[in-house]
Amino acid sequence: MALVLLAALIVAALIHAARSQNQTPGRRAELVLVYVVVGYCGVYQIYTGFDLLLEPDKILTHLGLPTGNAVTYWTASIYLGGAFMAALAIWYRGSYLLAPVVTWAIYFAGANFAHLHALQLNSVTLTPVIIGFVFATHGLISVILVAMWGSYVRSTRLRLRRSTDRRGD
Question: Whole-model pTM?
Fold first, then answer.
């Protein structure tokens, strides 16, 4: 479901960008970034955070760890904090986007390695298919966030530099 949601958000952002009057590369990157940050890192992770609070042992079982650990409540609280911060990006743009991008890029990169490590601890052979699936559901989001942030910043800086040069400042 997560991959379908991610793909749907990217497609929706690209459709939005195509219908937008401002069709610069920076605007497209910003829209993809905002859709992924708000939809995936925000709304979807708010759901996940509350799911962790209501069924804390589910993630531990999924990772093959012993159940009954109270650290899942702490994890859910951190998750919810980051998710609500990301959801706010629907109203706040510009440099505000850096905070959820950094938070979730680091989180999903770490989650990528955590899942691979948990699989190894549970004696699962890490085949290219398994590694690819884990990357697609975790690491890919980090790549998308960082790439879109870089594109957005690069395009914005280029536009700002050109307008400054025209004024002769």
Answer: 0.83
